[in-house]
Write a structure and sequence with these properties.
The complex is a heterodimer of chains A (825) and B (151). By secondary structure, chain A is of the alpha+beta class. In chain A, 54% of the residues lie in helices and 20% in strands. In chain A, the strands form 5 sheets. In chain A, strands 2-1-5-4-3 form a 5-stranded antiparallel β-sheet, with helices on both faces. A 5-stranded antiparallel β-sheet of chain A has the order 7-6-10-9-8, with helices on both faces. A 5-stranded antiparallel β-sheet of chain A has the order 12-11-15-14-13, with helices on both faces. The chains are: A alpha+beta (825), B alpha/beta (151).
Amino acid sequence: MQNIILTAFMPHGYCMQWQPGLIGTHVVADAAIALAYFSIPSLLFTFIKKRPDVKFNWIFVAFGLFIMACGITHVMEIVTLWVPAYRWSAFFKVITALVSVVTAVALFRLMPSIVQIPTPEQHRSLKETELALLQTQNELKKALGRFQGIFENAAIGLSHIGSDGTYLLVNRELCRMLGYEPAELLGSNAHDLIHPDDQDSLLLDQLKKGQIKSYTCEKRYIHKRSMSIWVELTVSLVRDIGGQPDYFVVAAKDISQQKRAAAVLEQTLDQLRQRERQVALLFEEGGVGDFTWNVARDVVSAHPMVWELYGHPGERGPQPAAWFEAKQHPGDLQAIRAHLEKVLETPSLKMDIEFRIIQPDSSIRWVACRGSVVRDQDGKPLEVYGLNIDISHTKEAQEEVRASEQRLVALTDAMPQLVWFTDAAGNVEFFNRQWYEYTGQEKGSELNWGWQPAVHPADMEKLLTRWRHALATGCDHEAEFRIRAKDGSYRWFLGRGRPLRDSAGKIIRWFGTCTDIEERKASETRLLSFGQEMERRVAERTHDLQVANDELTSARVRVIEAHNQLELRVTELAETNEELGRKNQEVESFVYIVSHDLRSPLVNLQGFSKELELSCDELRENLAPVLSKMADKARIESILCQDIPGSLRYIVASTSKFERLIDALLELSRHGRHVYRSEELNMRALVQTTLDSMRSSIDSSGAQVTVGEIPNAYGDATALGQVLANLIGNALKYLQPGRPGQIEVGGQAEDSVPHFWVRDNGAGIPESAKPRLFQVFQRFHPSLAAGEGMGLAVVKKIVERHGGTIWAEGEEGVGTTFHFTLSGK
Amino acid sequence: MDQTKNLTILVVDDDDGHRELVRRNLQRAGVTNPIVELLNGNDALDYVFCRGAHAARKTDMELLILLDVNMPGINGIEVLRQVKSDPQKRKIPIIMLTTTDDPREVDQCYELGCSVYVTKPVDPVNFIDAIKKLGMFISIVRAPRFSGGAE
């Protein structure tokens, strides 16, 4: 074949006449082109391999093949210079043409797609945009997380509520406030949780119409446990793009505590007002009134009693000081002004003065004025605050004392003896007229110890010794001594002295007489007795005076004392209450411990009785075959089958009774120790819940239950639910057989004390049982129903711990009504 | 049922009578698993954690604990707390046995992770049922016989 090719054509070199220059140039150029063409595809293949991500990589393959084919045609150019293989050359050219045409067509079709491949710059900016988008997404996610965190952990209850009222989103605080799990709230209607009395939707409508942006209001919500809680709501509306209401954002703040605090405040204010009324009463009873004198403005405002003291009961004031001065007795006016001036000047001084007021009917009223001065920082008087106290009675008594004293002096003057008074230390305060007439001493010089010159110097020592002894010991004094008359002569006298004691036994005075005993012989007896009589009467009189004086003093402090006693009584009552509570608690914890410990041996008793029963059974089974062969068969059989099982039955019955009693005691003590909540309860809802829970026993009893008006009350929902369940349960249990049962639950609020009753037409209570009705372990109709007789004891305990009372009315065979009250606040 | 043989029942109670009753009830019910009686909380913890007198006990057995609440010294609640706070031992089922059903005590026991709370005196039928409900593999060789037991 080679020969045929060689012979048929001539090599291409002939065309170039084998000129070495021309042929060399062709060879070198073609070789260089071919080498270049062969190297390019390998580079392209390497590129594709390393960058698998590059799009349309098959075009690179096609292009590589195209160039490779071109390279081969150039190699054939060199070959054909010497070897005339033109057919092979043509063959390769055809292949090259095919490949190039295919590549070109493919490139044309690909062109639009390639143009769209982004340039590196475009690529970079695309990347940046993507990154920014990712960042924005992250930020958004974080913000959403923060929002959820804030929403979930907010200290106020937050929720999103759909326009139809269903909860779309709720946070933890809202769930806590309402006592529900989030799953319970979601999807439920928010409207159902609002207290029936608070369900007005005026503001909500305005919000929907767009008249307002948001609103805040206070409403009561019903907690899961039926109590109502006060909540401050802030509601706003989120609208969708079309402006239609989408959902509500509701923030709820629990203000129950504030409400309770407000209630407590109101109560405190009530107490204060009551206190004020008590003080007013005291003021009125004691004839006391307070006043305030504003010094700078010269106005006096005063308690009604003050105006009354000044003889103008209808006056209201205020009045200037001059108004009061016009009514004060002109004789006291100067003293009052001087006193007031002194009090205003001297910071430590209190106002304390007594004066007369002339009444419109010209009668006189004595008033004591006590008070103190309120000063500013510089000590300048701002106002005088004080009390006016009616002391007319005291003054009258004082007048009486003075009159008595005058009568006493007249009395002593009328006596023939020398009469004297001293103070407790022996200083003479008074001699009667006879002393002066006899001794001729000047009035004034003889007082205290100035009487001594009148005593005979020789008798002086003895007299002083005795007198000092009497003063020191409090014994009666007696001495005989001579007293000089004004003419210088001496006569013998019998001096006697006697102490006068106050109610505490303390000596407050000495009084005595000096009796002339010169003529004693003649009239000794008579004179002595007369003197003693006089002494007695003087003592009596002086004592009376003293008593009167004491009474006056005590009357003055009686107002203060009464006040103090009132406070004391209140404190005592509180202490007694506390003591009672403590005692009660002690008893309850004792019951608890005892019941608890009693159960342990009881368990053994019950358990081993059962063991014995089982053992007995087993014994009987095992003995059966043997027994038939035994002589005392009947006896053993009766022991095994009757005696032992019989005894065991009693033990088992008693222990289970024992167990129920202990359980009941434990239950009771648990109620004593339980700490109750006090919150406003929707009692109507509570009654309804209780009835719902008892539905099956109500239905099976066939009784008809009606619910009347039920006021709200304060208390513990669980415990009061138990009270209702117990009373209704009792009514159901003790229906009269053969009579359709009718039970009524009702209530009313009397003077803000809620009062409830459960009335039935059942078996009633025997008259004899009424006193023991609420005691533990009491049962009156054991045939009608089972029980431990503890229910009513527990009910009474709960009601009393709520500050209420419980009682029963009714007649045997007619029916029973249980009443109970609760605290209204 | 090869697992049945691998369960040891611990009865922890300071009252001899109560322990005896539980043991008899289990045996009468046909339970053949080994029963270990322990008299106080301290001993129970030693047993569970292989300490003290029980340092050398075999450890290839699963445990079921019947635990009294009121015991002198370490009481049942404390034993429950310690066992349930140990990462290895917390999966041991514990049945609380007690004389009272004080709601606070019941709540506390369930919060601490007890499996069942049973009030004494134990009713044998219910008791065995409760154990079975725990999915415990107890080997019962014959049907329980409680002819005169239940009221």
